Amino acid sequence: MTYSKKITATLKQKGLKEGQRIKIGVYEGLLMPSPEITGSPDYLIIKLDNGYNIGIKYTSKTKLEKSNTPEPEAIKQEYLYETMDQHVEKIEQAHSKPPIAILAVGGTIASKVDYKTGAVNAKLTARDLVRMVPELRRIATIKMDTLSEVMSEDMNHVHWQTLAKETAKQLNQGAEGVVITHGTDAMHFSSAALSFMLPKLPKPVVFTGSQRSPDRGSADSSMNLICSVHAAKNDVAEVGICMHAELDDNYCIYSRGTKVRKMHSTLRKAFRPINDYPLAKVWPSGRFQMTNRRVKFRSTEKAKTDTKFEPKVALIKAYPGSEPKLIDYLIKQGYKGIIIEGMALGHVPTQAKKSWIPHVKKAIQSGVPVIVTTQCYYGRVNPDVYTNLRILYYEAEAIPGADMLSETAYVKLGWVLGHVKSMKKVREMMLTNYAGELNARLEPRMFLY
Amino acid sequence: MTYSKKITATLKQKGLKEGQRIKIGVYEGLLMPSPEITGSPDYLIIKLDNGYNIGIKYTSKTKLEKSNTPEPEAIKQEYLYETMDQHVEKIEQAHSKPPIAILAVGGTIASKVDYKTGAVNAKLTARDLVRMVPELRRIATIKMDTLSEVMSEDMNHVHWQTLAKETAKQLNQGAEGVVITHGTDAMHFSSAALSFMLPKLPKPVVFTGSQRSPDRGSADSSMNLICSVHAAKNDVAEVGICMHAELDDNYCIYSRGTKVRKMHSTLRKAFRPINDYPLAKVWPSGRFQMTNRRVKFRSTEKAKTDTKFEPKVALIKAYPGSEPKLIDYLIKQGYKGIIIEGMALGHVPTQAKKSWIPHVKKAIQSGVPVIVTTQCYYGRVNPDVYTNLRILYYEAEAIPGADMLSETAYVKLGWVLGHVKSMKKVREMMLTNYAGELNARLEPRMFLY
After folding, report:
1. 3-state DSSP call for residue B63?
2. B120, A387: Cβ pair inside 8 Å?
């Protein structure tokens, strides 16, 4: 998309070009190359000195002029610095740019603000993303693909299957690693899904995204992308999420895809490992520091997929006063498996009419497995401590989710039921560690990491 | 309960008394006063020098003898120290022991191990608790009452109503504060309930419990109880939860009842403030350091209760692939209000058959309010950022839960619906701050506190 004819004519008439410093009323800054990120050809986009972009509707009354103010000192220094840097890079990096594939599936990192309503939509392609972060071209040979433009809350198992297959394809066609840009809200569901759907993964698959849209001054997308490409070049061959570790732009943490959760709705450091340490810390400079003793390393195997999946699985919560009849309803609706996010060590209400025990028992007797996780998130379900727990796990035969996240258990149960049906086999697979989702040894320092 | 006749006879015959140092085979330690905490008169209970209690079944073959080993050094010193301490206390504390009421409603803190199965049941009374922590008598004039013996997963609105009324009664009969010992699994539901049911509270109401049963060496109950009584003597007049701040026995944090959550299934420092700072840090010595700028102080008002409550409220989760028809089912079952724990900023799936939007819209049109909270827990729901959110909140008219915890929103909606029915009034009350549940200003340091 280009600016409207009117704007283009005015720019030509005044001898103004994209990238030049211009002035409209009190606003002064660089004229952005094209209105691509705003969605309307009638808005002039100026990058202010504070890093924010603003959109100004162009009318016949708009006074548009060349600015004679010099650019702020900081920008000039940055420019000089980069020239020297590039000079060194030319020599250094000629021999070390492994092929990395970037797959874009929407989300905030691929979003732009609609300057008319102020709301945000997923519209940028992988190509747009890389264009916005030119540094990527210096650290890897980037291959880009845009798979979809969905926001992450709308991802489902069909998206996961497509994504797993496309990822394996890229890895088998020579990519040394894959970076997936994804919406953050449900990124940990997708990372868990790919962890199971890409068994014995030979190379890194790194999910990343951003908590601020890339045309905002506080955007985290550049650093997240850069660190993720570094992680994808490295030797830890796991599906993981690589996002800001701190409030500041210092470094990212790369956490195992089955042991990570979005813990804050807005902060850039929202993604935290749960019941695990991060796999590694990754700096934008390329420094990669391993922080976990249990990891899988790169191998020369072919990437395989195993995407069989039963989508009729539900995740519900048990809490004081909760409705156990939801279980009966879900079974009537054809659900094949249920995750109960229970309390603490795996409790559900057990008293009188609100007791969950008979409903769980009935579900299991009718062949629908019930797995219980903890709504604490940190820590594990332990069927051995309290009398009520023993009834739930030993008499009603619910399956304890151990230290698995509710989200991971939900995705895993769908994947397990895609493979086996018998209660015995389901139990066995749910309690088998396929992708680091079960951690026998929790350490106190993992809490609130 | 006392020891069996056989045991009593043997003890008498050998001249052994409770509290004395005895020896059974390789086990040596203090004979515990009575088998009250084990539930069986046939088990001899010995407190080992490492602090653990063990139960040994008494048979005719059991060799029971007096131990001649002197008690370990540490125990002797402790005894001497305490004598001097008591001497000082006699003078100091004669004038400063305000009346504090302790209400026991079950939970691990009132639990004991069944030494036959190894499982734990709630059986101890308030009196037992105070007997186990004699220090309490030195810092306050304790009045005790046992309300029930339920584990917290089985608490419901009727328990909350009884507890609120009993708490107000104690405060109006002269207690300077109330400490409630409670199971930890659902303690934050109960603390939220009392926060709303005791409006304009004039004195502190402090929930506490323990993550380890009090007859275990690693028990946290003593320090939690001591710190809670200190908090109840102090000037911050809020409903809160006072539990271990750290892994070690250093100090406790006292967090607002509407802004706290059990975040770990087993660690002693499991209760963390969410989207808020703790009200205060409390040391076993009585030191009380306020850590929150927004608090309510003690007043001379009478305590009032407002316990009207509509229990037909449900809390469900929305996530990729989730079932929106649960809403229709709950409404058919007579539910009067629904909390959706949505993703991040308050998202629900919006695509095709799995879109939650039409179901939310229908619920609201039929008079059932729907409030959306975030399953991130930290951060807030914000209806203004994404296009999908605008549809949910401005077209379907869901009520954004702001920074309220799901658990708090669930309890609050029950309380609100106990008072008003019209959608307009419900919306107004849900977005009014009654008990610190809404925090206009979230700070990054509150994250993972």
Report:
1. coil
2. yes
Do β-strands B370-374 and B64-66 pair in parallel, antiparallel, or remain unpaired? unpaired
Separation between Cα atoms, residue B63 and residue B24, nearest integer Å: 6
Q: What is the pLDDT of residue B371?
A: 97
Judging by beta carbons within 10 Å of its beta carbon (0-12, 13-18, 19+), is residue A285 exposed, middle or buried?
exposed
pLDDT in tens, B249-258: 999 999 999 9
ipTM of the modeled complex: 0.80
Contacts across the A-B interface (CB distance below 8 Å): 216
**Phi, then psi, of B25 in degrees rounded to 5:** 60, -125
Statement: residue A340 has pLDDT above 60: yes
**Would you say A439 and A275 are in contact if contact means Cβ atoms under 8 Å apart?**
yes
CB contact under 8 A, A447 and B376: no
Within a domain: A248: yes
Q: Which amino acid is at B424?
A: K
- What pLDDT is stored for residue B74 in this prediction? 43
A29-87 per-position pLDDT tens digit: 888 766 555 567 888 888 777 666 777 888 888 888 888 776 554 444 333 333 444 54
- We report the CATH number of the domain holding residue A54 as 2.30.30.520
Most confidently modeled range among A16-30, A122-136, A183-197: A183-197
pLDDT of residue B16: 85
Q: Which of B87, B119, B122, B92 is nearest to B104 (CA)?
A: B122
The residue segments making up the domain with residue A356 are 313-430
Longest dimension (CA), chain B: 83
Per-residue pLDDT tens digits for B66-102: 887 765 544 443 333 334 455 445 545 545 789 999 9
* B89 burial via Cβ count (<10 Å: 0-12, 13-18, 19+): middle
* Residue at B306 is within a domain: no
Which CATH number do you get for residue A258?
3.40.50.1170
Tell me the C-alpha distance between B68 and B74, whole Å: 17
List, by residue number, the catalytic residues of A: 108, 184-185, 262
**Cβ–Cβ under 8 Å, residues B58 and B41:** no
Amino acid at A74: A
Rounded CA separation A212/A247 (Å): 13
Instruction: Say if B437 falls within a structural domain.
Output: no
- Shared domain check, B375 and B285: no
With CB atoms and an 8 Å threshold, state whether B381 touches A448.
no
Specify whether A278 is located in the same domain as A400: no
Nearest CA in chain B to A332: B329
Angle of helix A157-172 relative to helix A187-197, nearest 10 degrees, comes to 60
Neighbouring residues of A286: CB distance < 8 A, sequence distance ≥ 6? A139, A230
Which positions in chain A touch B385 (Cβ < 8 Å)?
119-120
| Chain A: closest CA distance from residue B140 (Å) | 32
Domain count, chain B: 3
Q: Is residue B133 in some structural domain?
A: yes
In terms of Cα–Cα distance, which of B286, B307, B301 is closest to B171? B301
pLDDT in tens, A235-292: 999 999 999 999 999 999 999 999 999 999 999 999 999 999 999 999 999 999 999 9
What are the residues facing A52 on neighbouring strands?
none
As given in the structure block, the two tokens for residue B397 are 């008219």
